[in-house]
Write a structure and sequence with these properties.
By secondary structure, the protein is α+β, with helices and mostly antiparallel strands. It has helices at 17-36, 83-93, 136-152, 165-175, 179-190, 194-203, 208-216, 224-233, 237-256, 317-326, 348-361, and strands at 40-41, 47-49, 67-69, 75-78, 101-110, 122-131, 158-164, 262-264, 278-284, 292-296, 310-316, 336-341, 365-370. It has two domains: 7-326, Bira Bifunctional Protein, Domain 2 (BirA Bifunctional Protein, domain 2, 2-Layer Sandwich), CATH 3.30.930; 336-370, no CATH class. Helix content is 38%, strand content 19%.
């Protein structure tokens, strides 16, 4: 037999036994909490048409998508991200709905990243989407739900960083940056690459005052004081409105009692271009990546014919499990008890089966095992 057949491709893995039991327990805990906020389950296909995740939509680069063709020659994609699928569903089934719509989902996503990055190419995500609600209270509900989700599975040491895409876009507009420069600068600032951002602005001949202000964006984080400083740096209505929105958000988060877990980072930008307002990421020790990412995407649904505001987030379950393991906060899972019988003794199997059925009805997990002829299991 070819030994290679026993191995999985790079970036995917098998999960079984106690590890998978713990993962299912965490997913169930999260689902119970999310359902308590009024979110209803939805399931979308594992693969969709390529256009759902195209560059125009603003999702991940085409080179990182798993693409294939159906018999009719249509280009299909394994979903790399749930949000565009949620937007498509809302437009298809709730086109005329004006009241808030709450979705929750769970499934795997697929990104064809480089093997050198050492990241899983298939991960499980669980998330929520709140559609038809443009309010700051909806923003606060999302972030409060992020905090409560992490607390519900036993995490205590984590931080939710909040940014505002509109602040950056307003500043770029004020500085007169073209779309290409804005996108390149977004990548530099998002990666916290100060020197690359500095070189880019110099090469694109951005005037000194704006160059200095744009470079300061990366340092605007960690407190409400930074929001006051950010307000002094700009003179355009778009950026000022973004700061005002964050100030209102902070007030509502205090009502939820989750403000201790929150910080602000105006240098935080997302690789997903469909975000239009508040964005946020949750971090904890033991994992290098954000375990939760989310934000507002008020124009994405219009790509599918429905003009509606929306906000959501996704929990990367695999990263969350790694963090819980390193912080020793993994859930307890039910034990499997063994019940043996001797096949050589008439009626022993029937007795063991009767007892096993009784114990299973009590909620216990029982496996029936036959003893060998030597009396050993």
């Amino acid at each position: 037999m070819n030994q290679r057949l026993l191995h999985t491709p790079e970036g995917v893995r098998d999960i079984y036994g106690k590890e998978y039991a713990k993962k299912l327990a965490v997913e169930n805990q999260l689902h119970e909490l999310i359902a308590g906020y009024g979110y209803e389950d939805i399931q979308t296909p594992t693969f969709e048409y390529f256009d759902i995740f195209s560059k125009e939509i603003g999702t991940i680069p085409s080179k990182e998508l798993y693409k294939f063709f159906d018999k009719e020659g249509n280009t299909l994609v394994l979903r790399p991200d749930f949000t565009p699928s949620m937007a498509r569903c809302a437009a298809k089934y709730f086109m005329e709905e004006k009241h808030p719509i709450r979705f929750t989902y769970k499934g795997n996503t697929y990104t064809n990243t480089s093997n050198l990055q050492g990241k899983l190419k298939e991960v499980t995500q669980m998330g929520v989407e709140l559609i038809n609600d443009p309010s700051v209270e909806a923003d606060a509900e999302m972030i409060a739900l992020v905090v409560e989700s992490l607390k519900s599975v036993g995490l205590r040491e984590f931080q939710v960083s909040i940014g505002q895409v509109e602040y950056f876009k307003g500043l770029c507009q004020e500085a007169g940056l073209d779309e290409e420069t804005e996108m390149d600068l977004r990548a530099c600032i998002s990666g916290k690459n100060f020197f690359a951002a500095q070189e880019l602005l110099r090469d694109r001949k951005v005037s000194d005052p704006y160059r200095e202000v744009l470079l300061k964006v990366a340092d605007l984080f960690n407190s409400m004081t930074s929001l006051n400083d950010a307000k002094k740096l700009v003179h355009n209505e778009r950026s000022l409105a973004a700061i005002e929105r964050l100030e209102k958000l902070d007030a509502v988060l205090k009502l939820y009692g989750v403000d201790a877990y929150v910080s602000y980072d105006l240098g935080m930008l997302s690789k997903y271009n469909y975000y239009t307002g508040v964005i946020f990421k949750a971090y904890t020790f033991g994992v290098g990546n954000a375990i939760i990412t989310g934000g507002r995407y008020n124009t994405l649904l219009s790509r599918f014919g429905k003009d509606a505001p929306a906000i959501g987030f996704a929990i990367v379950i695999d990263d969350l499990m790694e963090a819980m393991s390193r912080q020793k906060s993994e859930p307890e899972t039910p034990q499997i008890e063994a019940l043996t019988y001797d096949p050589e003794i008439p009626g022993d199997f029937e007795k063991a089966l009767l007892l096993a059925r009784s114990l299973r009805e009590q909620g216990k997990r029982i496996s029936l095992l036959a003893k060998g002829k030597d009396g050993k299991e």
